[in-house]
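Example 3.
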Amino acid sequence: MDSANNSDGDVPPGGGRPPGGAPPGGPPVRAVITLVVNGTEHRIGVDTRASLLDVLREDLGLTGSKKGCDHGQCGACTILLDGRRANGCLALAVAHDGARITTVEGLADGDRLSPLQEAFIEYDAFQCGYCTPGQLCSATAVLDEAAAGWPSAVTPDITAATPMLDAAEIRERMSGNLCRCGAYVNIVAALRDTAERAERQSAADAARATSAASDARSEAIGHAQGVGRR
Amino acid sequence: MRALERVEGRDKVTGRARYAYEYPVEGAVYASAVQATVGRGTIAAVDAEAALAIPGVLAVVSCENAPRLRQAADAELAVFQSREVSYRGQLVAAVVAETLDTARDAARFVRIEYAPAAEGPDVRLHPGHPGIYKPDKVNPTFPADSVKGDPEEALPASAVQVEATYTTPAEHNNAMEPHATLAVWEEDGGLTLYDSNQGSSTVRDTLAEIFGLEPERVRVVSPHVGGGFGSKGTPRPNVVLAAMAAGVVGRPVKFAFTRQQMFSATGYRPPSIQRVRLGADGTGRLTTVVHEALSQTSMIREFVEQTATPTRMMYQAPNRRTAHRVTRLNVPTPSWMRAPGETPGMYALESAMDELAYAAGIDPVELRIRNEPETDPESGLPFSSRNLVACLREGAERFGWGDRDPRPAVRREGRKLYGTGVASSTYPAYRSPNQAYVRADADGRFTVRIAAADIGTGARTTLTLIAAETLKVEPERVAVELGDSSLPRASLAGGSSGTAGWGSAVVRACEALLPKLDAGLPAEATADTTDEVKAQEKYARHAYGAQFAEVEVDVDTGEVRVPRMLGVFAAGRIINPTTARSQFIGGMTMGLGMALMEQTVMDEEFGDYLNHDLAQYHVPACADVRDIEAFWVDERDAHLNPMGSKGIGEIGIVGAAAAVANAVHHATGLRVRDLPITPAKILTGM
């Protein structure tokens, strides 16, 4: 009781180093790793204690990913790590040498916002904006996960090829991302609208593909001209 | 007025919006804080040797070597100025290092020796606490007590009586962005602070005072703030710590509280113990209203939540009394959290009104309508406008209240019991003096400047609409610059007064500009509404609302879910429907959290809050929130401000918890008078 340590909450009391760490007073241990962030390759020396989140924010200047709790409890730091959503604050940078990362800065195609980004603005799916990068990365992954047929805890039929992203599915799948402003109602609406548009689009694509295929067959029989697909 | 998407929306969805910690300042280093591990005592010695020996550590700052600061009104800002520890978690030292990891690591090696106090920390709020006293005033300047008629005489003589004690726990604001500051001492001796706050003018003035600078030498930059909900309304220790550390090491310093540290360092809603007594005649007309509230504050600063103040004007009753009492404990200093006073106070009053409705056999909506006052019952002032009844009626209609069977605990399907509840909402309509500047350029564009804060409220967008309307141009031609103390002085984003105060100054500046436009461009104009606000006529100005909730309660697990919440509000003219709706729904969502999950638990052995992170302090997650709808009635009020608006940032949380609690009673027959309504309380109660 008579001596203090930093009450960060994430260190054991007593102030000692975990076994195997550098001794007190020793220099930080650094390692050079490669990260491909939003398509750009970075060869970078990192502190072996650093999280991916801190490397993105403090070393690469990509401050779009946010630090809300640094303990994987709020989701503000959600990034796409090798294609899957992950809390950047829980990922040790040195353990992800060679990783491909997408952050909120990489969601748009140049000046063209992604459909989800557009929908977030249209539905006012944020207020202060601090959880928004994590919400958007998470929501982007939710669309991919559902398209890949991943069920959630509330999916009625877990054998379904692609679970329908109805409101209940979205709420369940987005519950790793806290929003204290209380924009959930609008986040769900934005995601649902985007998912419905994507479903309509893929249905239309499928229909077009079928008809294109059938056209192609007819053309193969009677004509020399190829069939273009957009 | 037309609904406008957030003007900074694109920046927020692309990650371009910069928050305090994120400015690319050359040579910035990092600070990490050390907190007291005793709840009461004196710092005997600080041993910084081990920390300073770590490569990359630049300084350890504590009471032993901290630069002396000028005294601030808020003792929490006297960072490292004393050896006294009055609560566990108090800031006692900081490490400054070249990197974030080194600063955090080195903070663990700062050894602090304490001379503990003879007695352990006194941390438990209870009605028998010997230190209970009557404060001179309650937040911000209300009298502690009020009385009218003879309530003690009238109550026992009333045909119907309700007496109940309601308790609310400590709750933490938990804005998503931790309190953060990047402090830069400029070569000319000036101080630049990139800071997360609810009012850059206030931070500038306070920091100038503490560091003995002219206010013009301090610049506070805060264009984007990741939420505050009151906790960033006054400067918190982060901004002092960062500025001090930057001075000590001669480098720019970045500092953010960790989520865990926020629970003791950045304020919270204090717990309350409230006794409400209501008396009514056989028709439900109130004869007596008594509301007494007990709360806690810290040893170093008095903050008393104005919990019983809404009861002073909510309903008619000839006999009435309100009282606030407080006691000082070895606890962190409480402060503002969304609708301080109204939120816990209206939970208690509106729960008691529901109990009275049952005791008198009157529908809860009808009971409230029957007790509508003609004028403010205590001050006697006329209401500038008051449309509580319209909100109740429209809400009842929209929610489908009409065919409600009042009997509790009779709607069961399988494991679920269903119920509905109602409660009133209210929040005062304040306005503060402000200054604004506007310029018209030859390209047809207008620039508005005011040191207002957009903490997620949509202020930037709303002020754009206000300026565009006054200038009679499309909003696309107006750019609003805010969140910078170098802009014309502005009041806080607090007390739901932002739009009213800032908007008034923007309207006046735009009005002053209009006649100049024909004389050639560019043209500019300014405004200062100090005189206008001072000359305001006396009215009781409040917004009102009615909230309805439906709950389902699992009889086996005790879990309460809220399939539906619906609010109708009367808040003057709604300026931007898009952002207004988000504000109402956001407040209701936080109210849902208050009802069912939010509580911070005091460590009664050692002090400080135990569940100090977001895994243990539960705020609503996406799956907790199903269907929340907000509507508003058309309200015209000529006694407010040029826009005719009332504040909307806080009213959404007021009454929400009571609506849910009343619905839980309707579903189960159980009155849980102690928030939050957790499964354990349901199961043991049933």
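The CA atoms of residues 106 and 159 of chain A lie 33 Å apart. Chain A touches chain B through 76 residues (CB under 8 Å).
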